[in-house]
Write a structure and sequence with these properties.
With 219 residues, this protein is of the alpha/beta class. The protein is built from 10 helices and 6 strands. The protein starts with 6 loop residues before the first strand and ends with a helix.
Length: 219
């Protein structure tokens, strides 16, 4: 009997690479020695307002750095390279990641859907996990984010599939749960209240990636 769920959509940072922190990108920029003249609350507000542009293209990320930290635009390219290397150096893959992906790939199609400046594809490659994914949707390559249409793009890429045959798996209540749930997909929330609590009910709540295989079987 074919599984009810045919497509598993995975977030990367916070899911395959656990990282329970709010405004993690700002912390990384601070780790590179950047200081903003904006109060922290204003800096976070600016990041939230610019998030679509930041993850849609490198130019959008550069614009944010210029606005938030007063850098010259010509200096931002090198900074972004250093940012990516810092992110990659801090990324630790979940110990059950490969076993989970291997198990779920039996009879199902695995997809990755990531709001990213470009690092997450390299993270998966370095961890030896990228080969498990048959489809990849990266915001910086698609020039749209999860809130800007990535999940709709997934459905458009699979016109013969029904939304309820997909499950979105991730730690962001807003981008990994509310948005796909709104277009009819199933959802598994890897609880991360640092990124906010769910305003819509996930189909399943788990504590980390190690519980996801069991959770998918219940859908």
């Amino acid at each position: 009997m074919a599984p009810a769920i045919k497509y598993c959509i995975f977030d990367v940072i916070g899911t395959i690479f656990p990282w329970k922190e709010s405004f993690r990108f700002i912390s990384l920029l601070e780790g590179l020695g950047l200081k903003s003249e904006l109060p922290e609350s204003e800096l976070r507000k600016l990041f939230s307002a610019e998030i679509e542009a930041i993850f849609s293209s490198q130019e959008g990320f550069q614009d944010f750095i210029v606005k938030a930290y007063g850098m010259e635009r010509r200096e931002t390219t090198d900074l972004i390279d250093r940012f990516d290397e810092l992110l990659l150096s801090q990324a630790e893959v979940h110990p059950r990641a490969e076993a989970t992906l291997r198990e779920l790939s039996e009879g199902r199609c695995l997809l990755v859907c990531s709001d990213t400046t470009g690092s997450t594809k390299i993270m998966l490659e370095r961890a030896g996990l990228r080969a498990y994914f048959q489809w990849e949707y990266y915001s910086n390559e698609m020039h749209m984010t999860k809130t800007g249409g990535l999940f709709n793009a997934i459905l458009d890429s699979h016109p013969s599939a029904r939304p309820e045959e997909f499950v979105s798996i991730g730690d962001s209540a807003r981008t990994d749960i509310a948005i796909p749930k709104g277009i009819g997909m199933k959802t598994i929330w890897i609880r991360n209240e640092a990124l906010g609590t769910c305003q819509v009910e996930p189909d399943v709540i788990v504590e980390d990636l190690g519980e996801v295989s069991r959770a998918v079987r219940t859908l």
